[in-house]
Amino acid sequence: MLLTAAAMLAAAVFNESAACTGITLTSKDTSHVLSRTCEWGGSFLQSRYVVVPRNYTQTAFTPAGADGMVFTSKYGYVGISVMQDQFVTEGLNEAGLSAGLFFFPGYGQYEKYDSALNASTLTDMQLVAWVLGSFSTVDEVIASIGRIHVVSLSPEMQTVHWRIGDASGRQVVLEITGGEPKFHENRLGVLTNSPGFEWQMTNLNNYVNLYPGNARPQELADGITLSSFGAGTGFRGIPGDVTPPSRFVRAAFYQTTAPQYDTGFETVKQAFQILNNFDIPVGIEHSPSSGPLPENVPSATQWTTSSDLKALRFYYRTAWNSTIRCIDLKSIRFDKVGFTAAPLDKVQEQPVEFIKVK
After folding, report:
1. Which backbone phi and psi does 185 adopt, to 5 degrees?
2. DSSP code of 19?
3. Separation between Cα atoms, residue 167 and residue 34, nearest integer Å
4. Which of 31, 80, 277, 316 fits a disulfide with 310 by CB distance 3.0 to 4.6 angstroms?
5. What pLDDT is recorded for position 5?
6. What are the domain boundaries of the chain?
7. Which of 20, 92, 78, 52 has the alpha carbon at shortest distance from 309?
8. Which fold does the domain 5-194+259-343 belong to in CATH?
9. For residue 153, which phi and psi values (nearest 5 degrees)?
10. Are 13 and 82 in contact (CB under 8 A)?
11. How far is residue 234's CA from residue 211's CA, in Å, rounded to a whole number?
């Protein structure tokens, strides 16, 4: 049977290069803030924000086009979707559970699709929605993952992995390899893409020489002393390219050397400032032979989010409008609100304020 239109759209998007960078900050008032970027330089992702009420029922897609698992939300949540409203890529629920999907090409291996298991089969693109609607803690997710079968919509699609964190500050990375789900405790709070999380953590040891501040002057010979040209020479050698291992290293050091602020709101603003360093220009992903650049995509980093798990606030900004916008989950009656989906930007144009000088 032919794939559904949704499957073909998702395959078209996630079969190409994509990138994501996630960081975690904690304020002095114990607000845990999980932030991330979402990159795709090939075309407009058609991302929308979604508000999902309690008791909202969804049906999973399957590669064969038949209905998969039916799941009903116990918790209301807010998130951002790509291509289809059902494909929530990042979100926060009313219990303070955060979940996000990160591209993971070449390293994940889902189990083979079996139509006899449709009633418990869930596409990888819908796992975030299932997690946010069903659970309040990381422990609950870990205890329940064995009840479902995660598959791709299409054999041509690359795999993903997930970051899941709860209000206690605990955070895990879920990777499915060899058909089996594996959870990795993420005490660092950083995540990018391939290779796997454990390899990325080991790779950090290659940068044991990095430290904040300036390198100390060194005397090579009588009257010859080497000294810093400017600030930040303690970080000289930190990788600056946009590959996942390099972004993981930069994110780890930028995050852990950042000052700790008093409140979650200040910390959210700090997270957006840090993630400015991970915006990827569109042109860097395109070789001369790959054809024309996409129209109306000003940055491969199409949106950036930040979730305050204590205040229950979900923030975002986009490549078209760098103004930070906030959805306050505490202001939403998830028992009354209907399912809502709307474009991230009412108008895709960066606001510019003109200063009049008299």
Report:
1. -65, 130
2. B
3. 10
4. 31
5. 46
6. 5-194+259-343
7. 92
8. Penicillin V Acylase; Chain A (3.60.60)
9. -70, -25
10. yes
11. 5
- The span from the CA of 23 to the CA of 271, in Å, is 8
Helix axes 244-256, 264-275, angle to 10 degrees: 140
Residue 77's DSSP bridge partners are 52, 93
As to burial, measured by CB atoms within 10 angstroms (0-12 exposed, 13-18 middle, 19+ buried), residue 178 is exposed
Cα–Cα distance measured from residue 255 to residue 25, given in angstroms and rounded to the nearest whole number:
7
Q: What is the pLDDT of residue 16?
A: 52
The contacts of residue 8 (CB under 8 Å, 6+ apart) are 154
> How does pLDDT run across 223-254, given as a tens digit for each residue?
899 898 888 999 999 999 999 999 999 999 99
Report the amino acid identity of residue 32. H
pTM of the model: 0.93
310: left (phi over 0), alpha (psi -120 to 50) or beta: alpha
CB 163 within 8 A of CB 186: yes
| Alpha helices (H) along 213-330 | 244-256, 264-275
- Cα separation of 145 and 316, whole Å? 29
The stretches in the chain having pLDDT less than 70 are 1-17
Q: What is the rounded distance in angstroms from the CA atom of residue 149 to the CA atom of residue 123? A: 8
One-letter amino acid for residue 340 of the chain? T
CA-to-CA separations, 65 to 69, 72, 128, 261, 349, in angstroms, rounded: 12, 20, 20, 49, 37
Find out whether 262 and 27 touch, Cβ atoms under 8 Å: yes
For residues 37 and 273, give the distance between their C-alpha atoms in angstroms, rounded to a whole number: 12
| Start-end of H helices in 125-263 | 127-134, 138-144, 197-203, 244-256
- Produce one character per residue of 310-333: b if its CB has 16 or more CB atoms within 10 Å, e if not: bbbbbbbbbbbbeeeeebebeebe
CA neighbor of 75 nearest in space, from 23, 25, 141: 141
Q: What pLDDT was estimated at residue 3?
A: 47
